[in-house]
Write a structure and sequence with these properties.
Strand order of the largest sheet: 1-2
Distance between the termini: 127 Å
InterPro entries: IQ_motif_EF-hand-BS (IPR000048), IQCF (IPR039887)
Protein name: IQ domain-containing protein F6
Shape: rod-shaped
Mean pLDDT: 84
Radius of gyration: 44 Å
Number of strands: 2
Keywords: Signal
Pfam family, one: IQ
Length: 107
């Protein structure tokens, strides 16, 4: 009788321990999954911030290059306006040929 009651108590203790261990495993799995979600959210945020910073840097470089191109173009246009119509040439033909010296300045 004592043995059977001890066996029943041991089996009940074993069932309770199994239930407790499964509960602990579920809690641990929930914590792991929460930590994984938190980690992925943080990683995604880091990637997003890096992408935004790189986009900002690329835009800044593009605007600097565009501004430099505009400055170069404005100087080139000024130079071409200053030298527009300016044709200088010297043509020499020897012997029985014509000798020609041309200088045309249009301002």
């Amino acid at each position: 009788m004592v043995r059977s009651s001890l066996l029943h108590m041991a089996l009940r203790a074993w069932v309770i321990q199994c239930w407790w261990r499964s509960l602990q495993a579920q809690r641990l799995e929930r914590r792991r999954s929460l930590a994984l979600r938190l980690y992925t959210c943080q990683e995604w945020a880091v990637v997003k911030v890096q992408a935004l910073v790189r986009m900002w840097q690329a835009r800044r470089r593009f605007h600097q290059a565009r501004q430099a191109a505009c400055i170069i173009q404005s100087y080139w246009r000024w130079h071409s306006r200053q030298t527009r119509g300016l044709i200088r040439g010297r043509y020499e033909v020897k012997a029985s040929r014509l000798e020609l010296d041309i200088e045309i300045l249009l301002t």
